[in-house]
Design a protein that fits this description.
- By secondary structure, the protein is an alpha+beta fold.
- The chain has two domains: about 1-45, no CATH class; about 60-100.
- Helices cover about 45% and strands about 20% of the residues.
- The chain contains three helices and four strands.
- The chain has helices at about 5-15, 25-50, 85-90, and strands spanning about 65-70, 75-80, 85, 95-100.
- The protein has a four-stranded antiparallel β-sheet.
- A hairpin with a 4-residue loop joins strand 1 and strand 2.
- Helix 1 (about 5-15) runs antiparallel to helix 2.
- The chain is rod-shaped, with a radius of gyration of 21 Å.
- The model has no long low-confidence stretch (mean pLDDT about 85).
C-alpha cells in the first residue's frame, strides 16, 4: 500500500476495535481494509495517468489540467465553457486530443 495515511487509518481502526474478535478475524478485517485501500489507489493512479477524450468528458470549468494536442505537445490549459472548448484551441488553434488532472 502506497498511502501512509490509509495505513495509519487502518492501524488506528484496528487498535480501537471494541468488538471481541479472534486474531484470525482481525487479520481478515485488516486484509480486507488494506485491499480496499489498494484498489482505490490503483483506480486513482489510472485516472491520473490516462488521457481522457474531450468528446467523452470535459474537466471542471476554469480548472487547470494537462492537455495533449494533436501535435503531440502537452500543455497546461483549462476548459472554458463560454468559448465552447479549451482556451488553447481558441488562442492557438491547436486541437486538444486528450486531457487529465494535474498531479
Amino acid at each position: 500500500m502506497k498511502s501512509q495515511k490509509a495505513k495509519e487509518f487502518i492501524d488506528g481502526c484496528m487498535a480501537h476495535l471494541t468488538v471481541e474478535m479472534s486474531d484470525h478475524a482481525k487479520w481478515q478485517l485488516r486484509a480486507a481494509m488494506t485491499h480496499a485501500a489498494e484498489l482505490a489507489e490503483q483506480e486513482m493512479e489510472g485516472f491520473y495517468t490516462c488521457w481522457i477524450d474531450p468528446k467523452d468528458f470535459m474537466p471542471e470549468a476554469n480548472k487547470n489540467v494537462l492537455v495533449k494536442c494533436s501535435s503531440g505537445e502537452i500543455q497546461t490549459d483549462f476548459y472554458a465553457p463560454e468559448l465552447g472548448g479549451f482556451f488553447i484551441e481558441h488562442s492557438t488553434h491547436a486541437k486538444v486530443t486528450g486531457w487529465r488532472e494535474m498531479m
